Amino acid sequence: MDPATVTALGIALGDDLRRRNLADKPVLLGMDTRESGPAIAAQLAAGLDRSGVRVEFAGVITTPGVAYITRTEGYAAGVMISASHNPFQDNGIKVFSQTGFKLPDAEEHEIEEEIFRIIPGLDPGEQPAFLEPTITPDGYLFSLLRALPSKLTGVKVVLDCGNGAASSLAPALFQAAGAEVVAISNTPDGRNINLNCGALHLESLRAKVLETGAVAGVAFDGDADRCMMVAGSGKLVDGDTILLIAGRLLQKNGHLPGNIVVSTVMSNLGLEKALDELGITMLRTAVGDKYVLEEMIRRGAPLGGEQSGHIIFSEHATTGDGMLTGLSVLAACVSEGKSLDELAAGLTVYPQILLNVRVPERKPLAELPVVSAAISAGERDMAGSGRVLVRYSGTEPLLRVMVEGKEQHQIEAVANSIVAAIRAELG
Protein backbone atom coordinates (compact mmCIF):
# COMPACT_ATOMS: atom_id res chain seq x y z
CA MET A 1 0.00 0.00 0.00
CA ASP A 2 2.84 2.40 -0.78
CA PRO A 3 2.18 5.50 -2.96
CA ALA A 4 3.48 3.86 -6.13
CA THR A 5 1.24 0.79 -5.76
CA VAL A 6 -1.86 2.83 -4.95
CA THR A 7 -1.23 5.21 -7.85
CA ALA A 8 -0.64 2.22 -10.14
CA LEU A 9 -3.97 0.76 -9.03
CA GLY A 10 -5.68 4.01 -9.99
CA ILE A 11 -4.04 3.94 -13.42
CA ALA A 12 -4.87 0.24 -13.94
CA LEU A 13 -8.49 0.71 -12.88
CA GLY A 14 -8.81 3.73 -15.17
CA ASP A 15 -7.33 1.77 -18.09
CA ASP A 16 -9.72 -1.10 -17.37
CA LEU A 17 -12.69 1.29 -17.44
CA ARG A 18 -11.43 2.76 -20.69
CA ARG A 19 -11.28 -0.71 -22.27
CA ARG A 20 -14.88 -1.22 -21.15
CA ASN A 21 -15.99 2.15 -22.59
CA LEU A 22 -16.86 3.48 -19.14
CA ALA A 23 -14.21 6.18 -18.78
CA ASP A 24 -16.68 8.95 -19.54
CA LYS A 25 -18.31 8.36 -16.14
CA PRO A 26 -16.68 9.28 -12.80
CA VAL A 27 -15.42 6.84 -10.17
CA LEU A 28 -16.76 7.19 -6.64
CA LEU A 29 -14.23 7.08 -3.78
CA GLY A 30 -15.09 6.58 -0.11
CA MET A 31 -13.15 5.71 3.02
CA ASP A 32 -13.48 4.78 6.67
CA THR A 33 -11.88 6.74 9.51
CA ARG A 34 -8.27 5.45 9.39
CA GLU A 35 -5.65 8.16 9.36
CA SER A 36 -4.13 6.72 6.18
CA GLY A 37 -7.41 7.04 4.23
CA PRO A 38 -7.05 10.61 2.91
CA ALA A 39 -3.57 9.98 1.50
CA ILE A 40 -4.65 6.75 -0.20
CA ALA A 41 -7.71 8.48 -1.67
CA ALA A 42 -5.51 11.25 -3.08
CA GLN A 43 -3.09 8.74 -4.60
CA LEU A 44 -5.92 6.72 -6.17
CA ALA A 45 -7.45 9.88 -7.60
CA ALA A 46 -4.07 10.89 -9.04
CA GLY A 47 -3.74 7.51 -10.75
CA LEU A 48 -7.25 7.64 -12.17
CA ASP A 49 -6.58 11.16 -13.41
CA ARG A 50 -3.53 9.91 -15.33
CA SER A 51 -5.91 7.57 -17.15
CA GLY A 52 -8.29 10.40 -17.86
CA VAL A 53 -10.97 9.26 -15.42
CA ARG A 54 -12.74 11.72 -13.14
CA VAL A 55 -13.26 11.12 -9.42
CA GLU A 56 -15.95 12.16 -6.98
CA PHE A 57 -15.24 11.81 -3.27
CA ALA A 58 -17.75 10.83 -0.60
CA GLY A 59 -15.38 11.23 2.34
CA VAL A 60 -16.15 8.97 5.31
CA ILE A 61 -18.88 6.55 4.32
CA THR A 62 -19.72 2.87 4.78
CA THR A 63 -18.78 0.17 2.28
CA PRO A 64 -22.44 -0.60 1.44
CA GLY A 65 -22.97 3.14 1.02
CA VAL A 66 -20.32 3.22 -1.71
CA ALA A 67 -21.86 0.16 -3.38
CA TYR A 68 -25.37 1.66 -3.31
CA ILE A 69 -24.41 5.10 -4.62
CA THR A 70 -22.23 3.56 -7.34
CA ARG A 71 -25.07 1.50 -8.79
CA THR A 72 -27.88 4.05 -8.37
CA GLU A 73 -26.16 7.30 -9.38
CA GLY A 74 -24.39 6.36 -12.59
CA TYR A 75 -20.75 5.83 -11.57
CA ALA A 76 -18.34 3.79 -13.64
CA ALA A 77 -17.03 2.10 -10.49
CA GLY A 78 -16.86 2.57 -6.74
CA VAL A 79 -13.82 2.27 -4.51
CA MET A 80 -13.89 1.87 -0.72
CA ILE A 81 -10.70 2.46 1.24
CA SER A 82 -10.91 0.30 4.34
CA ALA A 83 -9.36 -2.64 6.15
CA SER A 84 -12.74 -3.55 7.63
CA HIS A 85 -12.30 -5.04 11.13
CA ASN A 86 -8.48 -4.75 11.16
CA PRO A 87 -6.59 -2.24 13.35
CA PHE A 88 -5.84 1.29 12.12
CA GLN A 89 -2.31 0.43 10.92
CA ASP A 90 -3.84 -1.70 8.14
CA ASN A 91 -5.74 -0.44 5.15
CA GLY A 92 -7.16 -1.90 1.97
CA ILE A 93 -9.02 -1.13 -1.22
CA LYS A 94 -12.32 -2.67 -2.34
CA VAL A 95 -13.51 -2.07 -5.89
CA PHE A 96 -17.14 -2.25 -7.01
CA SER A 97 -18.38 -2.41 -10.59
CA GLN A 98 -20.96 0.04 -11.92
CA THR A 99 -23.66 -2.44 -10.82
CA GLY A 100 -22.59 -2.20 -7.16
CA PHE A 101 -21.17 -5.72 -7.06
CA LYS A 102 -17.58 -6.53 -6.15
CA LEU A 103 -15.44 -7.25 -9.19
CA PRO A 104 -15.28 -10.85 -10.42
CA ASP A 105 -12.04 -12.64 -9.57
CA ALA A 106 -10.97 -12.71 -13.22
CA GLU A 107 -11.27 -8.94 -13.60
CA GLU A 108 -9.43 -8.38 -10.30
CA HIS A 109 -6.58 -10.56 -11.56
CA GLU A 110 -6.38 -8.60 -14.83
CA ILE A 111 -6.10 -5.32 -12.93
CA GLU A 112 -3.54 -6.83 -10.57
CA GLU A 113 -1.36 -7.97 -13.45
CA GLU A 114 -1.61 -4.48 -14.96
CA ILE A 115 -0.46 -2.97 -11.64
CA PHE A 116 2.69 -5.12 -11.72
CA ARG A 117 3.40 -3.97 -15.28
CA ILE A 118 2.96 -0.30 -14.37
CA ILE A 119 4.96 -0.10 -11.13
CA PRO A 120 8.54 -0.60 -12.47
CA GLY A 121 8.42 2.54 -14.64
CA LEU A 122 6.15 4.64 -12.46
CA ASP A 123 7.14 7.93 -10.86
CA PRO A 124 4.34 8.57 -8.33
CA GLY A 125 5.42 12.21 -8.06
CA GLU A 126 4.73 14.38 -5.04
CA GLN A 127 1.96 13.52 -2.64
CA PRO A 128 -1.19 14.91 -4.26
CA ALA A 129 -3.46 17.25 -2.33
CA PHE A 130 -6.09 15.66 -0.16
CA LEU A 131 -9.58 15.55 -1.60
CA GLU A 132 -12.61 17.43 -0.35
CA PRO A 133 -15.95 15.54 -0.23
CA THR A 134 -18.15 16.44 -3.17
CA ILE A 135 -21.19 14.24 -2.55
CA THR A 136 -23.34 13.23 0.42
CA PRO A 137 -24.78 9.84 1.43
CA ASP A 138 -28.34 11.19 1.76
CA GLY A 139 -29.82 9.02 -0.98
CA TYR A 140 -28.27 5.91 0.52
CA LEU A 141 -29.60 6.68 4.01
CA PHE A 142 -33.09 7.38 2.65
CA SER A 143 -33.02 3.99 0.93
CA LEU A 144 -32.41 2.27 4.26
CA LEU A 145 -35.34 4.05 5.85
CA ARG A 146 -37.57 3.09 2.92
CA ALA A 147 -36.63 -0.56 3.38
CA LEU A 148 -38.08 -0.66 6.91
CA PRO A 149 -41.52 -2.28 7.28
CA SER A 150 -42.19 -0.34 10.49
CA LYS A 151 -40.85 2.59 12.49
CA LEU A 152 -38.77 1.97 15.61
CA THR A 153 -40.83 4.26 17.82
CA GLY A 154 -40.20 3.54 21.48
CA VAL A 155 -37.22 1.27 20.78
CA LYS A 156 -34.17 2.11 22.88
CA VAL A 157 -30.99 0.88 21.25
CA VAL A 158 -27.27 1.16 21.99
CA LEU A 159 -25.06 1.62 18.92
CA ASP A 160 -21.36 0.76 19.08
CA CYS A 161 -20.00 2.49 16.00
CA GLY A 162 -16.50 1.02 16.32
CA ASN A 163 -15.03 4.51 15.88
CA GLY A 164 -15.43 3.76 12.19
CA ALA A 165 -17.47 4.70 9.15
CA ALA A 166 -20.81 4.46 10.97
CA SER A 167 -19.80 6.90 13.72
CA SER A 168 -21.83 9.86 12.48
CA LEU A 169 -24.18 8.04 10.09
CA ALA A 170 -25.67 5.33 12.32
CA PRO A 171 -26.89 7.47 15.25
CA ALA A 172 -28.62 9.90 12.89
CA LEU A 173 -30.13 7.07 10.83
CA PHE A 174 -31.54 5.12 13.78
CA GLN A 175 -32.95 8.32 15.26
CA ALA A 176 -34.60 9.10 11.94
CA ALA A 177 -36.14 5.61 12.09
CA GLY A 178 -37.76 6.57 15.41
CA ALA A 179 -35.41 4.87 17.86
CA GLU A 180 -34.02 6.30 21.07
CA VAL A 181 -30.27 6.04 20.53
CA VAL A 182 -27.38 5.69 22.95
CA ALA A 183 -24.17 5.88 20.91
CA ILE A 184 -20.75 4.67 22.06
CA SER A 185 -17.36 4.48 20.32
CA ASN A 186 -18.46 7.16 17.87
CA THR A 187 -15.54 9.61 18.25
CA PRO A 188 -12.95 8.46 15.69
CA ASP A 189 -9.48 9.96 15.81
CA GLY A 190 -7.87 8.05 12.96
CA ARG A 191 -6.26 5.48 15.23
CA ASN A 192 -9.03 4.13 17.46
CA ILE A 193 -11.06 2.36 14.77
CA ASN A 194 -12.03 -1.14 16.02
CA LEU A 195 -9.90 -0.56 19.14
CA ASN A 196 -11.58 -2.62 21.88
CA CYS A 197 -14.93 -1.74 20.35
CA GLY A 198 -17.20 -2.59 17.46
CA ALA A 199 -18.30 -5.93 16.07
CA LEU A 200 -15.26 -7.85 17.33
CA HIS A 201 -15.31 -6.51 20.89
CA LEU A 202 -18.80 -6.63 22.36
CA GLU A 203 -17.98 -6.27 26.06
CA SER A 204 -18.62 -2.52 26.26
CA LEU A 205 -21.80 -2.80 24.20
CA ARG A 206 -23.17 -5.55 26.41
CA ALA A 207 -22.41 -3.56 29.55
CA LYS A 208 -24.11 -0.44 28.14
CA VAL A 209 -27.22 -2.41 27.09
CA LEU A 210 -27.58 -3.82 30.59
CA GLU A 211 -26.84 -0.44 32.20
CA THR A 212 -29.38 1.50 30.14
CA GLY A 213 -32.10 -1.15 29.90
CA ALA A 214 -32.01 -0.93 26.12
CA VAL A 215 -34.00 -3.31 23.95
CA ALA A 216 -30.83 -4.27 22.09
CA GLY A 217 -27.35 -3.25 21.10
CA VAL A 218 -25.89 -3.09 17.61
CA ALA A 219 -22.15 -3.14 16.91
CA PHE A 220 -20.55 -2.29 13.56
CA ASP A 221 -17.09 -3.02 12.23
CA GLY A 222 -14.83 -0.35 10.75
CA ASP A 223 -16.57 -0.03 7.39
CA ALA A 224 -20.03 -1.03 8.72
CA ASP A 225 -20.68 -3.81 6.22
CA ARG A 226 -21.46 -6.13 9.10
CA CYS A 227 -23.06 -6.01 12.50
CA MET A 228 -23.28 -8.08 15.64
CA MET A 229 -26.04 -7.60 18.19
CA VAL A 230 -26.70 -7.95 21.90
CA ALA A 231 -30.20 -8.74 23.21
CA GLY A 232 -31.75 -6.99 26.19
CA SER A 233 -30.69 -9.86 28.44
CA GLY A 234 -27.06 -9.39 27.40
CA LYS A 235 -27.10 -12.45 25.13
CA LEU A 236 -24.93 -12.31 22.00
CA VAL A 237 -26.84 -12.36 18.72
CA ASP A 238 -24.41 -13.19 15.90
CA GLY A 239 -24.82 -13.54 12.15
CA ASP A 240 -26.13 -17.09 12.42
CA THR A 241 -28.88 -16.01 14.80
CA ILE A 242 -29.75 -13.05 12.58
CA LEU A 243 -30.05 -15.37 9.58
CA LEU A 244 -32.49 -17.54 11.52
CA ILE A 245 -34.57 -14.53 12.59
CA ALA A 246 -34.63 -13.03 9.10
CA GLY A 247 -35.18 -16.36 7.34
CA ARG A 248 -38.09 -17.26 9.58
CA LEU A 249 -39.75 -13.87 9.03
CA LEU A 250 -39.21 -13.84 5.27
CA GLN A 251 -40.70 -17.33 5.03
CA LYS A 252 -43.69 -16.34 7.16
CA ASN A 253 -44.38 -13.34 4.91
CA GLY A 254 -43.98 -15.32 1.69
CA HIS A 255 -40.71 -13.64 0.68
CA LEU A 256 -38.35 -16.63 0.75
CA PRO A 257 -38.65 -18.21 -2.72
CA GLY A 258 -37.33 -21.74 -2.83
CA ASN A 259 -36.97 -21.73 0.97
CA ILE A 260 -33.22 -21.20 0.60
CA VAL A 261 -30.78 -19.30 2.83
CA VAL A 262 -27.11 -19.01 1.86
CA SER A 263 -24.31 -19.01 4.41
CA THR A 264 -20.68 -20.14 4.60
CA VAL A 265 -18.67 -23.08 5.82
CA MET A 266 -18.23 -21.21 9.12
CA SER A 267 -21.90 -21.15 10.09
CA ASN A 268 -22.82 -23.31 13.05
CA LEU A 269 -24.45 -26.70 12.57
CA GLY A 270 -27.17 -25.49 14.91
CA LEU A 271 -28.29 -22.93 12.31
CA GLU A 272 -28.47 -25.56 9.61
CA LYS A 273 -30.61 -27.79 11.83
CA ALA A 274 -32.88 -24.94 13.00
CA LEU A 275 -33.54 -23.85 9.41
CA ASP A 276 -34.13 -27.45 8.36
CA GLU A 277 -36.86 -27.74 10.99
CA LEU A 278 -38.59 -24.81 9.24
CA GLY A 279 -38.25 -26.49 5.86
CA ILE A 280 -35.51 -24.08 4.81
CA THR A 281 -32.40 -25.37 3.07
CA MET A 282 -29.09 -23.79 4.05
CA LEU A 283 -26.43 -23.71 1.32
CA ARG A 284 -22.77 -23.20 2.27
CA THR A 285 -20.09 -21.30 0.33
CA ALA A 286 -16.46 -20.36 0.90
CA VAL A 287 -15.88 -17.65 3.48
CA GLY A 288 -16.58 -14.15 2.17
CA ASP A 289 -19.77 -12.21 1.51
CA LYS A 290 -18.70 -11.99 -2.14
CA TYR A 291 -19.11 -15.75 -2.50
CA VAL A 292 -22.35 -15.73 -0.51
CA LEU A 293 -23.78 -13.14 -2.88
CA GLU A 294 -22.68 -15.06 -5.98
CA GLU A 295 -24.55 -18.15 -4.72
CA MET A 296 -27.58 -16.05 -3.80
CA ILE A 297 -27.73 -14.73 -7.36
CA ARG A 298 -27.36 -18.22 -8.84
CA ARG A 299 -30.16 -19.57 -6.64
CA GLY A 300 -32.42 -16.53 -6.59
CA ALA A 301 -32.14 -16.44 -2.79
CA PRO A 302 -33.11 -13.17 -1.06
CA LEU A 303 -31.13 -13.81 2.12
CA GLY A 304 -27.57 -14.83 2.87
CA GLY A 305 -24.73 -14.02 5.20
CA GLU A 306 -21.95 -15.03 7.52
CA GLN A 307 -21.66 -15.91 11.18
CA SER A 308 -19.38 -12.87 11.51
CA GLY A 309 -22.29 -10.52 10.80
CA HIS A 310 -22.21 -9.88 7.05
CA ILE A 311 -25.90 -10.17 6.18
CA ILE A 312 -27.15 -9.57 2.64
CA PHE A 313 -30.76 -8.70 1.85
CA SER A 314 -30.57 -8.90 -1.93
CA GLU A 315 -33.79 -6.95 -2.42
CA HIS A 316 -32.11 -3.90 -0.95
CA ALA A 317 -28.33 -4.31 -1.23
CA THR A 318 -25.48 -5.87 -3.20
CA THR A 319 -23.23 -6.35 -0.18
CA GLY A 320 -23.47 -6.89 3.54
CA ASP A 321 -24.84 -3.82 5.29
CA GLY A 322 -24.56 -3.54 9.07
CA MET A 323 -26.91 -0.58 9.43
CA LEU A 324 -29.60 -2.22 7.26
CA THR A 325 -29.23 -5.44 9.24
CA GLY A 326 -29.58 -3.73 12.62
CA LEU A 327 -32.60 -1.74 11.47
CA SER A 328 -34.24 -4.85 9.98
CA VAL A 329 -33.86 -6.97 13.12
CA LEU A 330 -35.23 -4.21 15.34
CA ALA A 331 -38.12 -3.69 12.92
CA ALA A 332 -38.83 -7.43 13.17
CA CYS A 333 -39.05 -7.08 16.95
CA VAL A 334 -41.62 -4.29 16.50
CA SER A 335 -43.70 -6.03 13.84
CA GLU A 336 -43.71 -9.37 15.69
CA GLY A 337 -44.27 -7.78 19.09
CA LYS A 338 -41.40 -9.80 20.55
CA SER A 339 -38.09 -9.04 22.20
CA LEU A 340 -34.81 -9.86 20.49
CA ASP A 341 -34.32 -12.61 23.08
CA GLU A 342 -37.61 -14.17 22.00
CA LEU A 343 -36.81 -13.92 18.30
CA ALA A 344 -33.40 -15.48 18.89
CA ALA A 345 -34.90 -18.53 20.60
CA GLY A 346 -34.81 -21.81 18.71
CA LEU A 347 -31.13 -21.85 17.83
CA THR A 348 -29.12 -24.52 19.62
CA VAL A 349 -25.48 -23.64 19.11
CA TYR A 350 -23.08 -26.54 18.79
CA PRO A 351 -19.78 -26.06 20.63
CA GLN A 352 -17.24 -24.61 18.23
CA ILE A 353 -13.56 -23.82 18.64
CA LEU A 354 -11.55 -21.59 16.31
CA LEU A 355 -7.76 -21.46 16.64
CA ASN A 356 -5.50 -19.22 14.56
CA VAL A 357 -1.94 -20.29 13.78
CA ARG A 358 0.46 -17.68 12.37
CA VAL A 359 2.36 -19.18 9.43
CA PRO A 360 5.44 -18.05 7.49
CA GLU A 361 3.92 -18.97 4.11
CA ARG A 362 0.56 -19.95 2.62
CA LYS A 363 1.53 -23.37 1.32
CA PRO A 364 -1.36 -25.42 -0.15
CA LEU A 365 -2.70 -27.89 2.39
CA ALA A 366 -2.38 -30.70 -0.14
CA GLU A 367 1.40 -30.16 -0.01
CA LEU A 368 1.48 -30.59 3.78
CA PRO A 369 1.23 -34.36 4.44
CA VAL A 370 1.48 -34.13 8.23
CA VAL A 371 -1.25 -31.48 8.42
CA SER A 372 -3.43 -33.33 5.91
CA ALA A 373 -3.14 -36.52 7.95
CA ALA A 374 -4.14 -34.70 11.14
CA ILE A 375 -7.15 -33.16 9.39
CA SER A 376 -8.23 -36.56 8.04
CA ALA A 377 -7.91 -38.10 11.51
CA GLY A 378 -10.01 -35.29 12.97
CA GLU A 379 -12.69 -35.73 10.33
CA ARG A 380 -12.88 -39.43 11.17
CA ASP A 381 -13.24 -38.61 14.88
CA MET A 382 -16.03 -36.11 14.18
CA ALA A 383 -17.84 -38.16 11.52
CA GLY A 384 -21.59 -37.84 11.93
CA SER A 385 -21.35 -35.56 14.95
CA GLY A 386 -19.47 -32.47 13.82
CA ARG A 387 -17.22 -30.74 11.31
CA VAL A 388 -13.56 -29.89 10.76
CA LEU A 389 -12.56 -26.88 8.67
CA VAL A 390 -8.99 -25.69 8.06
CA ARG A 391 -8.42 -22.65 5.82
CA TYR A 392 -6.10 -19.71 5.34
CA SER A 393 -7.25 -16.26 6.39
CA GLY A 394 -8.04 -13.96 3.49
CA THR A 395 -6.42 -10.93 5.14
CA GLU A 396 -3.70 -12.16 7.53
CA PRO A 397 -0.84 -14.74 7.52
CA LEU A 398 -2.94 -17.15 9.55
CA LEU A 399 -4.14 -20.72 9.16
CA ARG A 400 -7.53 -21.02 10.83
CA VAL A 401 -8.61 -24.29 12.45
CA MET A 402 -12.31 -24.66 13.21
CA VAL A 403 -13.80 -27.77 14.82
CA GLU A 404 -17.46 -28.13 15.74
CA GLY A 405 -19.34 -30.90 17.49
CA LYS A 406 -21.51 -31.96 20.38
CA GLU A 407 -18.77 -32.41 23.00
CA GLN A 408 -16.39 -29.62 24.02
CA HIS A 409 -13.59 -31.95 25.11
CA GLN A 410 -13.68 -33.77 21.76
CA ILE A 411 -13.49 -30.65 19.59
CA GLU A 412 -10.67 -29.24 21.70
CA ALA A 413 -8.66 -32.46 21.32
CA VAL A 414 -9.15 -32.55 17.55
CA ALA A 415 -8.34 -28.85 17.11
CA ASN A 416 -5.20 -29.04 19.26
CA SER A 417 -3.99 -32.08 17.34
CA ILE A 418 -4.30 -30.24 14.02
CA VAL A 419 -2.61 -27.11 15.41
CA ALA A 420 0.30 -29.23 16.66
CA ALA A 421 0.68 -30.72 13.18
CA ILE A 422 0.68 -27.25 11.59
CA ARG A 423 3.38 -26.00 13.93
CA ALA A 424 5.46 -29.11 13.41
CA GLU A 425 5.34 -28.86 9.62
CA LEU A 426 5.26 -25.09 9.04
CA GLY A 427 7.04 -23.82 12.15
**Spans where pLDDT lies below 50 across 5 or more residues:** none
Beta strands, count: 16
Summarize the amount of helix as a percent range. Answer: 25-40%
Radius of gyration: 22 Å
Query: Distance N terminus to C terminus?
Result: 28 Å
What's the quick description here?
This protein has 427 residues and is of the alpha/beta class. It has helices spanning 3-19, 37-50, 63-72, 105-118, 138-146, 169-176, 203-212, 239-252, 269-277, 289-299, 322-336, 340-344, 369-382, 408-426; strands at 27-31, 55-60, 77-81, 93-97, 156-160, 180-184, 216-220, 227-231, 236-237, 260-264, 281-285, 303-305, 311-313, 352-358, 386-392, 398-405.
Keywords:
single chain; 427 residues; alpha/beta; Alpha-D-Glucose-1,6-Bisphosphate, Chain A, domain 3; TATA-Binding Protein; 3 domains; five-stranded mixed β-sheet; four-stranded mixed β-sheet; 16 strands; 40% helix; 19% strand
Notes on the structure:
- α1 crosses α2, α1 crosses α4 and α8 packs across α11.
- This protein has 3 domains: 134 residues, Alpha-D-Glucose-1,6-Bisphosphate, subunit A, domain 3 (Alpha-D-Glucose-1,6-Bisphosphate, Chain A, domain 3, 3-Layer(aba) Sandwich); 206 residues, Alpha-D-Glucose-1,6-Bisphosphate, Chain A, domain 3, CATH 3.40.120.10; 75 residues, TATA-Binding Protein.
- By secondary structure, the protein is an alpha/beta fold.
- The chain has a 5-stranded mixed sheet with strand order 6-5-7-8-9, sandwiched between helices.
- It is 40% helix and 19% strand.
